[in-house]
Amino acid sequence: MKEYDVAVVGGGPIGGHVAYRIAEKNYKVGIFEKRKNIGTPINCAGLVTPRVFEFLKINEKNIVQNKIKGAKIHSPSGTVLKIGGDRVHAYAIDRKGFDQEIVKKAEDKGAEVTLNSNILSAQKNGNSIELRNSKGEDIKCHILVGADGPFSKIRDRFALSEPEEFLRGIGAEVKNTNLDSDFVEIFAGEKIAPGFFAWIIPTNKEGTEARIGLCIDKSAKNSPKYYFSNFLKNQDVQNYCKDVKIINYIGGIVPLGILKKTYSSNVMIVGDAAAQVKPTSGGGIYTGLVCADHCSDVIIESIKGKNYSSQLLKRYQRLWYAEIGREINLGMKFRKIFKSLSDEQIDKYIKRFQNPKIVEIISKYGDIDKPSKLIKPLLKKSPTLLKLIPSVLKE
Q1: What is the CATH code for 64-93+166-255?
Q2: Entry pTM
């Protein structure tokens, strides 16, 4: 039987960061990844803020593909709102290389990585958790961390809270695009991506390569593939993607909503498994990493005191919620408002936002990691928006 202080199920960036933080304290950590390779297949749009690299202290050189300065938001009728452009707001990254770099940091600190290792069973035995994987290996640990994605087996096995909502996503890496490499193109509308939006992210400085994708919610009448196929044929999209060559497809699920319980005795979940995702963008790397730090801190405290109880691990829930809970709750309220808008209303508000002073505020205060920072300055400049978001202001 393999024995560890901590077993991390899931070798993505969030699980890798938890493993790194614990292994650097000289505790024995195992990472168990069901896939054959770290970082593949890709199931993410791969857009992060520069603060992610500051947070991780990893080299940008071979991971950042392109630096994004702004966004062009296309309304259902074709009106375009251009924001940003003055400074770098986000990086398009090589997700495979990003994931591998984080897991390698954990390995360098002594974490053991087992690939092609699907966890088949997990049960509590005394003051430990016992696991069995698809390789027929028996594993024992004091703390089990579920970083195993939106349909987390660890979350289900230990009856932890479920996400409020799941978005279905589809996309592709493409060549032969005709893009302004400084800007992400965002498209909204019931016919484009019901309940969410579509995107084109330039992934090189020439604007000739990109990741294209969209997410839809449960209200959608058709499949993600149907909407993606129509998106590529859209007249406005054709301006950028007329002769694109699809290199490979991307697919994924985005979990949304606050989980009321992300811990149990000897067990914690983190990242997509805990729905620690921004509802306004579907991004979960920064928020997941923030929560991974809190998860690691509580685990280290737990191991030091040989106390793996639910009472102690509850501190993790309090810590991560204190840091990102309000942001997620506000994001879900904004999401509810967005889903209630008709295409005509979306057109109306995008036209209203074209006011140069409002664009200046969005460009100055807009932050995809912390979108709520925009609320006060935006409402101060345009009080009429109060009619749109009254429920949010009660918080």
Answers
A1: 3.30.9.10
A2: 0.93
